[in-house]
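TODO from last week: model IGSF5 protein.
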Amino acid sequence: MYLPTVVFFLLSGLGFCYSLLKGPTNATVLAGSEARFNCTVSVGWVVLIWLSNGMPVLTVTSSQGPIETSDRFTSQNYTSGNEITLELIIHNTQLSDSGKIECSIQQSSENNFAFLSVQVNGSLFIKNSTLTVKENKTVEIVCEALGWAPAPDITWMTNDSLIDKSRYVTHQSQGSNGLNNALSILTLTPTESEILTCLADIEALPNPQNATVTVIFINSTIENDYIEDNENTWVIVLAVVLSVVGIILLIVIIVVVVRCCCLKK
């Protein structure tokens, strides 16, 4: 049995003349980062026990300080006047850490708990970074998010302006290890070249993750002019080649005739 659990039961029947002044507040963090929770108690405190989802993870006493049994759960204290703030630090947070975080002073008190939400920032990509589209052509652009928790909120932008949600559809699915996937399909009929951005967001991210694709629009008039120019270029090249070949043949014929005349003499 873990030492914090032993201390928890040994002290459960004792009463102390101090009180909990302020409990912890909810926190949302990315997996692998730190989560911090504070409880403020009055002077005269003796022991405070931190619990995660009902299980003691760290005990702090006024005489010995924190009694640590795992390097993932540590503590530090702050004193201000007649108040002492005890901080729980959860290192390298994991999905399984999500849930209820309590600070117990072995007395009946309200607001002594908060909730931790650990989220996972997965991957986001669009298969093609560049897409060429002809006039009056409708295309579907697919943005895929893999390995998120929770499933991300997907939005699209074009040239830094939000695209209406009616123009794309997003499907969510359960992935491996309790993670989530999302597939967003944008239907587009371009009228000009533009840069499209797929954005994936969860609460713990300071900024949404993004993936971009450049859509190159080809106007039919421009395309026809290009084809016509190419055809004209080939005609000119062919004419020049035939002219050069004709001149060479003429020179060869002249040389042959002259040589034949010289041989007869």
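Done. The chain has two domains: 3-119, 123-218.
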